[in-house]
Amino acid sequence: MTQIELSILSGDQALPASLTLPADGKVRAGLVVLHGAAMPQRNFFLYRHLAELLPEHGVAVLRYDRRPSDREVPFDLQVADAQAAMRVLREHAGCGQAPLGLWGFSQGAWTASIAAAGSAEVAFLVLVGSAGMSPARQMRYGTARRLRDRGYDAEALRELAELRVVWEAYLRGEQARQVAQAVIARYAARPWFPLVYVPSTLPEPGSWQNMDFDPEPVFSRAHCPVLLFYGENDEWVPIDESVAAWQRAAEGSGNRDLTVVRLPGTSHTPTLERGETMATISPAYTEQLVLWLGRQAGVRPGGARP
């Protein structure tokens, strides 16, 4: 493998990036890696796994650091950065007309889907933990699940639901700051409060611009082949509802190249026993990823081209 350090210029940002190429220089496909919300750095282990695994199968991998921000980075900026990364990949990887795709984890799956819906340049999508509902609904599900998994009772779940309703209403500009802050103050001392991703001090309204983003219409405009990975027991994403959203979208758009893989023994990340290292990544994930990308690149199992 060959690794090149470079920058991706997107608007006023220069994003540090790492491009990993096949050792023989023969690029059969290219992949740009998009970030989970809490994993903005290109050296996160799931991203490094792609760079270490795929080049030996002819796939160039471009990873970059998400643009810095003290708030949620709006999806339109993340999409612009992904598009800039694809241009860099096309220019620097020596991939000619090889297909280029996007890999997105969690929040990055929304971003990747938007980018694919708006560009014929995206030849395929690989999405891990793709939620088929809005970020606000997904966070309601995930935070309630966190409390249930830790043994909190129905009263704690009721309080959480009230907290999140007020928090979301404030961000939409529908709730006065004083009222919202009073509700947060009421629950900030609860032992479960650190688990639910609500700040103890309110930011400005509108800090979470995409909280009500509806992904299903976007899914229906992604006409490229799509590979979806879901854990056997995802603590952050309602899997059946998300798969159903993708299936409805694919049926409505006529996209017959939708593949859904459920990974035994995994949760939100494609790792066994909720591990956080490359050693814990599910072998089934690795195997299915390589086989599917090989088909997109026109490579038979074993590396031979048809």
Task: Describe the protein's architecture and organization.
There is one protein chain. The protein is of the alpha/beta class and 306 residues long. 38% of the residues lie in helices and 18% in strands. It has nine helices and eight strands. It has helices at residues 45-53, 75-92, 107-117, 135-149, 154-172, 177-187, 216-219, 239-253, 283-296; strands at 2-10, 13-21, 29-34, 59-64, 100-105, 122-128, 226-231, 258-263. An eight-stranded mixed sheet has the order 1-2-4-3-5-6-7-8, sandwiched between helices. Helix 2 crosses helix 3. The protein is globular, with a radius of gyration of 20 Å. The two termini are 23 Å apart.
Write the layout of secondary structure elements.
Layout: E1 2-10, E2 13-21, E3 29-34, H1 45-53, E4 59-64, H2 75-92, E5 100-105, H3 107-117, E6 122-128, H4 135-149, H5 154-172, H6 177-187, H7 216-219, E7 226-231, H8 239-253, E8 258-263, H9 283-296
Parallel strand pairs: 3-4, 3-5, 5-6, 6-7, 7-8
Antiparallel strand pairs: 1-2, 2-4
Helix pairs in contact: 2-3, 4-5, 5-6
State the main characteristics.
306 residues; alpha/beta; 8-stranded mixed beta sheet; 9 helices; 38% helix; 18% strand; globular
Put the structure in a nutshell.
The protein has helices at residues 45-53, 75-92, 107-117, 135-149, 154-172, 177-187, 216-219, 239-253, 283-296, and strands at 2-10, 13-21, 29-34, 59-64, 100-105, 122-128, 226-231, 258-263. The chain is of the alpha/beta class and 306 residues long. Strands 1-2-4-3-5-6-7-8 form an eight-stranded mixed sheet, sandwiched between helices.
